[in-house]
C-alpha cells in the first residue's frame, strides 16, 4: 500500500498507512526528465584502499578523457549519484568539487554540473579520430608504419 501524505484531517490517516486517495487513482510512479542527464557507469568498491570520493572522481575523469563524456554532457546531481551509489552526498560533492578544480566540469546555476570544454576535450576528440584512422587504415590493409608516414606527410602540408 502506498502512503501519500495529505494536508488537513487526513494527515493522521496517512501516517498510519491508510491510503487516503479515492479508489481508481493511478498510483504508478512518475518519471519526469526535463533535461538530458548522462548516465555514468561508476562502481565504488568499499573494500578498496582508495577513498570513495577518489574512486568517483577518477572514474568520471576517465570517462571525460576517453571521450565517453563530451563537453556539455550533464552529470547526475550530487544527491542522485550519491543515492545510486549508496554514498553520502558530501562524498560525491567532494568528487565533483575536485573535478571542477581540475577544469573538467563546471557547475552552472540551474543547469547543474556539466562537462567543461577545454584542452581535455580536444585531446579526447583527437583520440577518437586517431582510433578511427587506425581502424580504417588497418581495414584497408595499410601497415602501421605506413599509416604513421601518411600522418607525417599531412603534417608537413
Structure description:
The protein has 157 residues and is mainly alpha-helical. It has three domains: 1-30, no CATH class; 52-117, Arc Repressor Mutant, subunit A (Orthogonal Bundle); 120-156, no CATH class. The chain is built from six helices and two strands. Helix 2 (52-66) packs across helix 4 (89-101) and helix 3 packs across helix 4 (89-101). The termini are far apart.
Short structural description:
The protein has helices at residues 11-15, 52-66, 78-85, 89-101, 119-139, 144-156; strands at residues 105-108, 112-115. With 157 residues, it is mainly α. It has a two-stranded antiparallel sheet.
Name given to the CATH architecture of the largest domain: Orthogonal Bundle
Indicate the overall shape: elongated
| Helix and strand sequence | HHHHEEHH
Count of helices? 6
> What structural class do helix, strand and pairing data support?
mainly alpha
CATH class of the largest domain: Mainly Alpha
**What value does the Rg take, in angstroms?**
24 Å
**CATH topology label of the largest domain:** Arc Repressor Mutant, subunit A
Low-confidence stretches: 1-15, 29-35
Core attributes:
single chain, 157 residues, mainly alpha, Arc Repressor Mutant, subunit A, 3 domains, two-stranded antiparallel ribbon, 6 helices
Amino acid at each position: 500500500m502506498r502512503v501519500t501524505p495529505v494536508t488537513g484531517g487526513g494527515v493522521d490517516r496517512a501516517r498510519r498507512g491508510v491510503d487516503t486517495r479515492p479508489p481508481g487513482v493511478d498510483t504508478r510512479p512518475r518519471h519526469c526528465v526535463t533535461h538530458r542527464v548522462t548516465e555514468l557507469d561508476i562502481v565504488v568498491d568499499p573494500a578498496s584502499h582508495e577513498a570513495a570520493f577518489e574512486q568517483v572522481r577518477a572514474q568520471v575523469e576517465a570517462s571525460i578523457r576517453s571521450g565517453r563524456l563530451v563537453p556539455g554532457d550533464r552529470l547526475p546531481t550530487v544527491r542522485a549519484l550519491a543515492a545510486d551509489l549508496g554514498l553520502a552526498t558530501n562524498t560525491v560533492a567532494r568528487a565533483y568539487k575536485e573535478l571542477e578544480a581540475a577544469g573538467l566540469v563546471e557547475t552552472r546555476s540551474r543547469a547543474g554540473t556539466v562537462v567543461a570544454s577545454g584542452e581535455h576535450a580536444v585531446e579526447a576528440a583527437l583520440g577518437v579520430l586517431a582510433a578511427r584512422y587506425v581502424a580504417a587504415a588497418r581495414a584497408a590493409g595499410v601497415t602501421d608504419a605506413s599509416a604513421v608516414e601518411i600522418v607525417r606527410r599531412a603534417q608537413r602540408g
